[in-house]
Amino acid sequence: MRDRLNRAVRRVPGWLIYLAGFGWMGWLFFQGASGALGPEPVEALEHAYGLLALQFLVAGLAVTPLRRWAGINLLPLRRQIGMMAFWFLCGHVGVWALLDLQSLSRVWAEIVKRPYITIGMAGLLCLLPLAATSTNAAIRRLGGARWRRLHRLVYPAVGLGALHYIWLAKGAQLEPFLYAAAVVGLLVLRAIPKRAGRRGESGDSAGGRFRALSRG
Amino acid sequence: MARRWINDLTPERATPEAAWLNRRQLLAALGAGAAAVGAGGPVLAQGAELEPTSFEDITNYCNYYEFGTGKGDPAENAHMLTTEPWSVKIDGLVERPGDYGLQEILSEMTVEDRLYRFRCVEAWSMVIPWNGFELADLLEMAGVMPEARYVAFETVLRPDEMPGTRRNVLDWPYVEGLRLDEAMHPLAIMATGLYGKPLPNQNGAPIRLVVPWKYGFKSIKSVVRITLTEEEPPTSWNKANPREYGFYSNVNPQVSHPRWSQAEERVIGSGGEGIFGRLSVERQPTRMFNGYDEVAALYEGMDLSEYF
């Protein structure tokens, strides 16, 4: 069963994730523009894109624990998952800046004045170098070890994203805390020391990563 | 009794030819107890270019956490609320405490049309054609004792009809409060309808408070209890987060919410037609007391950044 799943994952072409992701992004936008998202489509889009970005980030964070503890290997699709998180985040910030605030001076004022926006922006800044080095060429240029070190920036990025979500909610809403719990849980799983020989693989070997990443 | 306050925000006055109404003279007339609208000099009326928000938007974009925290949740879930029969318990420092049936109340009250701006603390706004009567009349019906200084309000709490209350998003039941002089101001009304129709459940049926110069959450919905008190009553959002929500919560563009600016507001339903129309929502500057300057006297000598 697990092997069949893993084989199926390997057969999913990367562009299919992009097609689905950008398709969903466009569909949401169309729905907002046509009134299907209710009387305040700008806010609805802002929230939908932001939440999807966080969901993709959490999914990306789940890849290694899933492989290590459940033997499910989504590594071949991790780059696409991470890139979709980045693109939804761009959508989130784009809608906020262009459609909601509608001016650069307001954008700057909000970043400076509102801590939850400041940390959200910090999260986006963490992801910028990761998105920029998401190609095989970049991995070769940086070398596996440096590339991996750089990409640990995803941990603060997800943490800041989860905090941003908690911070902006009114009242004691449950959902932001569920995401934060998922993020903390996934980070804690990573901290558990590896036992040699488990499932006969070393979950984080650079070689495995290279093979996975070379699929573009 | 009623009709103390002259509505200067009517669709007729929203037309360009009426944009030259002297508001100060109107207020002066009000102060003199006259109902006449003075013909005045060319001072731009605040009602200019205002249009009521559509019934659809008013009834589908709501904050009513008892039915869920999403803006669409109340429209989806509020049908579960039974609003008949309905009575309001009026107690505390009143001469005639008791359970007042809604029909009994309405038979004594003068229901008027009041076109009010509505400004949510989340920095969006609507213009709502309410039908309602002045809160002062209801309080007079119960007879306010001289020691009373505050009015406390409570929303109905029925977890089996209000799915949002099964989680402690707020400390249920929802409670709100006003200082007595605020409550007695002719702008403060108890609304029982909008657009001439009975109040939809998601908007606080069958009877709710509307205080147009304060942020929307002060205008408590589906009221079942009104208590006159000597002490400032607790209010739900203030209990949940006193740093962010004060007892007064007057609309004030100068005092930011700690997490966002209150200087401007998004006007719901202001987007145009077409593919990008709906996504180009107008932002307009927020005005002190939501533009209802006539309440300023209530706060004379108070530092409103301290009593926010």
Automatic annotation (TrEMBL), chain A:
The keyword Metal-binding applies. Keywords: Cell membrane, Electron transport, Flavoprotein, FMN, Heme, Iron, Membrane, Metal-binding, Transmembrane, Transmembrane helix, Transport. Residues 197-216 are annotated as: Disordered. One of its GO terms (molecular function) is FMN binding. Its cofactor is FMN; heme b. It is a multi-pass membrane protein. One of its GO terms (biological process) is protein repair. Binds 1 FMN per subunit. The keyword Ubl conjugation does not apply. Residues 48-161 form the Ferric oxidoreductase domain. It is found in: Cell membrane; Membrane. The chain crosses the membrane at residues 12-30, 50-69, 81-99, 119-138, 150-168, 174-192. Coiled coil: none annotated. One of its GO terms (cellular component) is plasma membrane. Part of the MsrPQ system that repairs oxidized periplasmic proteins containing methionine sulfoxide residues (Met-O), using respiratory chain electrons. Thus protects these proteins from oxidative-stress damage caused by reactive species of oxygen and chlorine generated by the host defense mechanisms. MsrPQ is essential for the maintenance of envelope integrity under bleach stress, rescuing a wide series of structurally unrelated periplasmic proteins from methionine oxidation. Heterodimer of a catalytic subunit (MsrP) and a heme-binding subunit (MsrQ). PANTHER family: PROTEIN-METHIONINE-SULFOXIDE REDUCTASE HEME-BINDING SUBUNIT MSRQ. Belongs to the MsrQ family. HAMAP family: MsrQ. This is Protein-methionine-sulfoxide reductase heme-binding subunit MsrQ.
From TrEMBL, chain B:
Keywords: Metal-binding, Molybdenum, Oxidoreductase, Signal. Residues 82-237 form the Oxidoreductase molybdopterin-binding domain. The keyword ATP-binding does not apply. Gene3D superfamilies: Oxidoreductase, molybdopterin-binding domain. InterPro entries: MsrP, OxRdtase_Mopterin-bd_dom, OxRdtase_Mopterin-bd_sf, TAT_signal, TAT_signal_bac_arc. Predicted to be exported by the Tat system. The position of the signal peptide cleavage has not been experimentally proven. Its cofactor is Mo-molybdopterin. GO terms for biological process: protein repair. It catalyses: L-methionyl-[protein] + a quinone + H2O = L-methionyl-(R)-S-oxide-[protein] + a quinol; L-methionyl-[protein] + a quinone + H2O = L-methionyl-(S)-S-oxide-[protein] + a quinol. One of its GO terms (molecular function) is molybdopterin cofactor binding. Its EC number is 1.8.5.-. Binds 1 Mo-molybdopterin (Mo-MPT) cofactor per subunit. SUPFAM superfamilies: Oxidoreductase molybdopterin-binding domain. Mo-molybdopterin binds at residues 65-66, 120, 155, 203, 208, 219-221. PANTHER family: PROTEIN-METHIONINE-SULFOXIDE REDUCTASE, PROTEIN-METHIONINE-SULFOXIDE REDUCTASE CATALYTIC SUBUNIT MSRP. Heterodimer of a catalytic subunit (MsrP) and a heme-binding subunit (MsrQ). Part of the MsrPQ system that repairs oxidized periplasmic proteins containing methionine sulfoxide residues (Met-O), using respiratory chain electrons. Thus protects these proteins from oxidative-stress damage caused by reactive species of oxygen and chlorine generated by the host defense mechanisms. MsrPQ is essential for the maintenance of envelope integrity under bleach stress, rescuing a wide series of structurally unrelated periplasmic proteins from methionine oxidation. Belongs to the MsrP family. This is Protein-methionine-sulfoxide reductase catalytic subunit MsrP. It comes from Allosediminivita pacifica.
